[in-house]
Design a protein that fits this description.
Number of helices: 8
Structural class: alpha/beta
Distance between the termini: 36 Å
Number of strands: 11
Helix content: 25-40%
Largest sheet: 9 strands, mixed
Radius of gyration: 17 Å
Shape: globular
Length: 247
Amino acid sequence: MNYLLPGETLEDLEREGLKIIQKEKGFRFGVDAVLLSDFARVRKNDLVMDFCTGTGILPILLYGKSHARQIMGIELQDEFAEMAKRSVDLNQIEDKVKILKGDIKDEKLLKSLPKFNVVTVNPPYKKENSGIINEKDALTIARHEVSLNLEDVISGARTVLKDQGRFYMIHRPERLADILTLMRKYRIEPKRLRMVYPNTKKPPTMVLVEGLRDGGEFLKVEAPLYVYNDDGTYSDEIRRIYGDDRK
């Protein structure tokens, strides 16, 4: 069976032979998805939900890392959801990874789902009304808060998480105050935080956050994660995360 459509490529994830279908041009997964999959603590018996799953990169990476009992990804856009399903079929992991076409603002839908041990999300980063956008563009919806905002994401996570369920997000540092405020509002207590820097000379460009549904108050700030050494080579930690010997 040919799983690829015109204008698509097949990317080898270099993890247990897993692959993912992507567009040659347009939205493609980046280092943020890989970092989130490493940061998230997923156990073998967990039920996992990935919000804003896009082309399914997080569920597939998390399956390769953890072999969790069941991983579900939910995606609003038909094109991405259909592509994610083809990647799942291609990898022959449809018994473990399910892709659901749906809207995380649909409270009735979320309440119809089982409760999850873990929710992950790599949401649209750019705040609503920031910059020139075209609401019909799939890439715009993936990157801007057009179809949902940060509060939608966190309130949705509260709905589907089990008691003491774990929430993992990657976002931009400039939104950190909003993230922590909303997590507290929906009683997902911030427990772990890690800043991601391009190198030691530049400010952070990403932040990883872990929360616990109805958890106690204690936040651990972890050591910085540097993507590159100052000489331009990849850091040891990035090479560990990617599982290769990249320079």
